[in-house]
Amino acid sequence: MVATLLLLAVAQLATAHFGLEYPTWRATTLGTGHNYSQWSYPCAGVPGNIAGGNRTDWPLTGGSVVLDLHHPWSYVFINLGLGENVTNFNYTLTPQFLNTTGNGTLCLPTLPLPANLKVEDGTEASIQVITVGESGAGLYNCADITFKADAKPLAGDACQNNNVTSVAVKDQKATSAGAVAGMNPVVLSSVVGLAVLFVCGMSL
Ligand SMILES: *[C@@H]1O[C@H](CO)[C@@H](O)[C@H](O)[C@H]1NC(C)=O
Ligand SMILES: *[C@@H]1O[C@H](CO)[C@@H](O)[C@H](O)[C@H]1NC(C)=O
Ligand SMILES: *[C@@H]1O[C@H](CO)[C@@H](O)[C@H](O)[C@H]1NC(C)=O
Ligand SMILES: *[C@@H]1O[C@H](CO)[C@@H](O)[C@H](O)[C@H]1NC(C)=O
Ligand SMILES: *[C@@H]1O[C@H](CO)[C@@H](O)[C@H](O)[C@H]1NC(C)=O
Ligand SMILES: *[C@@H]1O[C@H](CO)[C@@H](O)[C@H](O)[C@H]1NC(C)=O
Ligand SMILES: *[C@@H]1O[C@H](CO)[C@@H](O)[C@H](O)[C@H]1NC(C)=O
Ligand SMILES: [Cu+2]
Asked: Where, subcellularly, is it found (predicted)?
């Protein structure tokens, strides 16, 4: 699971901040008027279960994720952790991570749960979405969910792609070992974060 934290060794260019539209994110981390930072692992500095808990019901077999992407392309990794107030996202929902092209809206209709993950009606969990852009630094957003037997994946108008296409990048392990030039499975350092913040800072 740690292999999902893929980062470039050197941060040079601006990367894409992004919005997590569905499930509803823990808090808005785009724009101004808050002290959150999408550079902050694991959840942009937003604690779990805030504001009394604003949890989205999610189907027992896996549900939808809708992202608002702002830059020409991004790698997308989606993880899940169990509990009311999750900081350990130790299940991946993208065993093959996504390479998305285009800025706009991406809807993933159904992300199946890993075979070794058993949930039941009422199980609380959180979803972590990581995007990695040209800079190689990760950007994070999280959403709190409750697995529900009667929850349905998004469909129709609620699940549309607008100017974004995505392809699964096969064999994440090989990729993390260096198949993507310059990528290393290192933990995001604040030095990298700050270097990119300098470039990307105010421009979302
Ligand atoms: C952000 O942090 C600053 C400095 O600690 C504080 O003055 C401000 O009220 C905070 N803003 C919000 C929205 O919490
Ligand atoms: C909870 O989510 C709903 C639906 O997105 C939103 O309208 C509302 O503002 C959120 N409430 C809090 C306290 O964040
Ligand atoms: C679609 O995405 C591309 C790549 O980011 C961008 O150049 C183009 O302006 C976008 N088109 C629309 C209609 O937003
Ligand atoms: C969630 O956990 C964090 C640390 O893991 C803690 O600081 C915070 O108070 C917890 N929040 C709630 C609502 O339990
Ligand atoms: C994930 O972490 C939870 C506790 O945070 C633990 O109960 C569970 O066994 C872990 N699962 C895996 C596959 O590591
Ligand atoms: C991801 O897509 C971008 C732009 O479409 C492309 O330049 C890049 O090579 C792709 N990366 C992988 C690993 O397929
Ligand atoms: C995509 O980016 C282009 C160029 O910055 C911008 O004109 C367009 O409005 C963006 N489209 C979306 C859907 O964000
Ligand atoms: Cu940005």
From this structure: Cell membrane
Write the pLDDT tens digit of every residue in 139-176. 999 999 999 999 999 999 999 999 999 999 976 554 44
Ligand 1 atom closest to Cα of residue 34 = 13
Residues with CB under 6 A from ligand 3: 72, 102-104, 163
Whole-prediction pTM: 0.82
**Ligand nearest to C-alpha 50:** 4
Residue 51, classed as helix, strand or coil, is: coil
What 8-state DSSP symbol labels residue 169? -
Interior CA angle at 83 toward 78 and 88, to 5°?
50
Asked if the structure places residue 204 within a domain, the reply is: no
Instruction: Please state the domain count of the chain.
Output: 1
